[in-house]
Amino acid sequence: MSSKAIDFFDIHQFADEFVNELISLAVEKYQRDETGFFIYRCPKYACVESENSCDASSESKEDKGKTHVKNSAKSISWVTIGNFTYSKAVININEYVSTWVLPPGAIFEMKENNLIKDVEGLGRTFYADVIVSKQAYPSATATVAFQIHLSAILPTSYPVMVTYTFEDFRTVFYAIGDKCFYCNFQRHFISHALELKQKIFQEPFKWSNEFKENEKDDKEKNKDNTIVTKEVSKKVKKIRDC
């Protein structure tokens, strides 16, 4: 066998091993990212619409609101991986939440989070919170935790992936991409959290008022018992004097 044939064989074997190694590495990373936080198709803003997530008994006004939410959310220009800054991502999240239909009387505010999580070989995750409250019960709040996933694998022209979870629920929702939902479902999770917090805050006041009422009744009873005791003592004294 000529030296040229041997060299060609060596190059072919090297290329074959190199390609197999790349494929194995890609498969390993893909399997590690089952959630699709760091490896995903470039969103075309034609996300999944789930009619099952909406109220079957929704009225025409709500349908109009649903259409408004779809169009508004799709019009958001999400920050790309190449142009990523934390502040830009927070602005995007603020724009996104502004498209939600919140419970009546509810308002929200953004809260930045300094936590950063490095995911080896895949990218980094940043965090931000949305705090929802009602003016009638400002102490009762519902938190929506947002996660901003900055991929180290995808092209820089891709938008960052943004996901979120509601308080007391583990289900992960996607703000963009093939797995996102454009429907007015968020208010149900938020209403659940707000109503629960309101009950928690109302119960101590209710218990405190009941305690005060019972304490007042006990004082009245003790006062009455004291009067009766004094009357009995007077009568006993009169009997003894006789």
Counting helices, strands and paired strands, the structural category is alpha+beta
Q: Tally the structural domains.
A: 2
Rounded to the nearest angstrom, the distance between the terminal CA atoms is 144 Å
Mean pLDDT: 75
Report the C-alpha radius of gyration, rounded.
Answer: 32 Å
- The 3D shape can be described as elongated
Topology:
Elements: H1 3-32, H2 60-74, H3 86-98, E1 106-119, E2 123-134, E3 137-151, E4 161-166, E5 173-174, H4 186-241
Antiparallel strand pairs: 1-2, 2-3, 3-4, 4-5
In short:
The chain has helices at 3-32, 60-74, 86-98, 186-241; strands spanning 106-119, 123-134, 137-151, 161-166, 173-174.
Would you give an account of this structure?
With 242 residues, this protein is an alpha+beta fold. It has two domains: 32 residues; 207 residues, no CATH class. It has a five-stranded antiparallel beta sheet with strand order 1-2-3-4-5. It is elongated and about 125 Å long. About 11% of the residues have low confidence.
